[in-house]
Amino acid sequence: MSGAPHDERSNDGSLVASTLTIAWSIVGVVAALALVIVARHVFILIFGAILFAVVLNRIASKLLAWVPIRWSRSIMVGIVLILLVVLLIAAVFGLAGSIVDQLDSLTTQLTDSVSRVREAAQSHPLWKRVQKSDVGLSSLLPSSGSSMGIAQTFFSSTFGIATDVLILSVLTVYFAISPSAYRKPLIRLAPVPWRERLDEMLRRSSTTLWHWMLGQAVSMTAVGIAFGVGLWFLDVPMAIQLGLFAGLVTFVPTIGGIAAVVPAMLLASGEGASNVWSVLALYAVVQFAESYLLTPMVQKQQVNLPPAMVILSQVIIGLLLGFWGVVFATPLFAVAILWVKELYVKDWLEKADEVAAPASPSASG
């Protein structure tokens, strides 16, 4: 008899403890979501830095297994980083020199074209009607205030992207040189029973990012070869360099493709307008094949992402997180799918079904 009140008190205490745990968990989740929403721009940069740091570490680990000299991993990461930066700078400056050489002839061609268009427009009856009407040409052009606003927006956006690239680069270097210095404190923030599982999830996330990057490397290589060979058939100068540049910038969806076709069109303009249209058609075919066929299929093999989900992730995350959301949409979505499958489906739903399954026969009996 005396044990009954004690059992009731213990049950009440367990109920209160469980309720408090659930309440604090909800508060923590809401606070985390609010923090992510407010600082989403910073978080997407941190994720990008983690992605590049994972890639640098994996490449450095592969090289350490092949190189007979026993270097530390940090030194090998630095060597890989320097080599990648040198290759990128060489590709960009190699293209820039040829484009500058073509600008003089392009400027002359554009000036002649504008003069011919002006002469044809002035002789057209519609132009004479516009001159007789009350509508002035100045009303059709943007005002000085709006022009200044457009210029200010352009320069502020450019400065913002440059600042983001600097922050991304610095974070990548720090994360790559000493990843354990950031992973271990993060694991210690979790409750003790969850630490082993969290460490496993972080390692599996790293593997997922590496596999995604391998798939992206396949797409970048295919685009570079296809674009370079196509430009070579069209007799565009520096076709190999342009193909290399196209492969590098394909890492950035949509915007990278535009950045690849602009220098190709500038260099092709010296051969005439028909060649420019041919380059534009080549770009459209390669871009369509890469965006809607090659990349979705490759990523399905590497990280088990359905092709439609790859495209939808770029659209949805791009709308939520802007430019950097478009850049890192697919790897972010791949990691999110991994965590949902492991923590929500496997650790919660399926374990709950396993616990409930033995109880059903006795309940029915």
From TrEMBL:
The keyword Transmembrane helix applies. InterPro entries: AI-2E-like. Keywords: Membrane, Transmembrane, Transmembrane helix. The chain crosses the membrane at residues 22-55, 75-100, 154-177, 209-234, 240-268, 275-295, 315-340. GO terms for biological process: transmembrane transport. Its main location: membrane. The keyword tRNA processing does not apply. It is a multi-pass membrane protein. GO terms for cellular component: membrane. It is found in: Membrane. PANTHER family: TRANSMEMBRANE PROTEIN, TRANSPORT PROTEIN YDBI-RELATED. Belongs to the autoinducer-2 exporter (AI-2E) (TC 2.A.86) family. This is Putative PurR-regulated permease PerM. It comes from Aporhodopirellula rubra.
